[in-house]
Task: structure prediction
Amino acid sequence: MATVLRLTLSQLGGRWRLALILLLAALPIGLAALVSATLSEAESSNEEFVNTLLDTLLIAGILPIVMMVLATASFGNEVEDKTLSYLVLRPLRRSLIALPKLLAPIIVGGPVLVVSGVVATLLGGSSLGVVIVVLHGDGQAALAVGTAVLAGVVAYAAVFTWAGLMTTRALAFGLMYVFIWEGLITTFLGGVRYLSIRAYTLAILHGMDKTSFGSLEDRVIEFPAAVGGAIIVTVVFFLLTVRRLRRMDVP
Amino acid sequence: MTALVNGPLAKTDSAVIDVRAVSKWYGSVVAVNDVSLQVKSGITGLLGPNGAGKTTLLHMIAGLAGPSEGEVTVLGEPVRDNTPLYRHIGFMPEHESLYGILTGRGFVELAARLHGLEPLGPPVDRALALVGLTDVQHRATGTYSRGMRQRTRLAATLVHDPEVLLLDEPLSGTDPRQRIDVQGLMSRLAAEGRTILVSSHILEEIETLADNILLMVAGKLAAAGDFLAIRAKLDERPYQVKIVANETRAMAAALVGLVVVDSVSVDEEAEPPSLTVMTRKIGELQLSLPKLAKEREIRLYRVEPMDESLESVFSYLVDG
Result:
């Protein structure tokens, strides 16, 4: 398993891909710093910070896009250049190929996105009240952001790793999924939020720190449902990936 | 090139690869159509023109693709989704792709690691030496020539010393010297009791290598068996020869009188006018034609075979 993980990490470590990811992850930090430096508490609010920067920019935008870029390439490169046969023609259980392929995008994308969310929260909150919670509470807001983003990272990684194995047009599939399903349908249709990774992420954020992220109260699903949903999505798509590896015609 | 570490395998007359009534289709396209065959130890050539279904068949034998119908077993076991069987099978795919981030040695080591070989060094050294890549093993595969990439993939196929080798166009891209080396290696591996199924679309590559031939055309198994018998059948096929001469009609009349000529057709509309000769004895026609032209004082401008392609050869075999 370690061999496949090392190989996949070096495949994902391409310069342009890392540059794009770092650039995207720096956006929330830069914007939060700008907000912190230019606006006073009277001009903005905790609600705006949470809705605009954490939800719309990071959780609904940068998080799925970064994970899409990484996880679709996890198998996608090998499907495209026909090198997948070098892995599957070995006496390895398919789960021992699928697991490192899932872990690699999490290892590359997870820390970058978690740091982005936590630092943005600390910077953006300095004029908006969140940092007060961080300093005077027990770091609960930062912990909530970090945990929620990590849950999103893992769930998106499972979905997009599977997509990279299913189709050579995984990026197109990913963009449609992110913008149409996660961005539109689950935002406006309350019932299907239970099938949304974005909704799981927001609900975990809110569930872990209701004080700092109370403005999400009206539009989040229950905390246990979010945790369970994220786990189910991850496990189901991992098993679908293993099943696909066993049944597909390898090019 | 060095010898294998393991000793000779017991040579067996039973089928190592057994393909039973296998078909494979993609939508409405039939890639392999009701093929049954058995492969025993030694070298068996899988011959056929491009698009004949050789690669699809090899993929099914390797378990990379599942048959739409029928069954494939290797060493008596179903091969599809039977990962432990890969300890005994080495498959070299046709495509040239390698992990560009790895060196030649790194690529062979990757295969060794995935096979769980321990220690890693000796089998990797042996495989690289077998294909003559020891000197360039530390170079990135991105800097390799086509032939070197081909041999790198062959080394990775051999690293776990498999009993069954499935090689899809292994000589493609190799220069004449490398070709002789690889052919010699395959012969040695076969002599040690291994079963080697090697595909090619070039008759001469297979001719010098394989004891037995499987001929595929348009997804079907057109012929199977001893190479010489199939070769004889190929030699008996009718040939078409196009001739351009200064006196087309006179040449046609002269050719009709030859015993070796089956038929002659004249195309006076063509530019320049030409005639097409059908013969089953191409060698005799080649000898007779200049003499005939000289006797009749006819000048020959062009004499060319019209259907020397493998496709026509195989089509003939399939059509009977």
In short: Chain B has ten helices and 14 strands. The two ends of chain B are 44 Å apart (CA to CA). The longest strand of chain B covers residues 29-39.
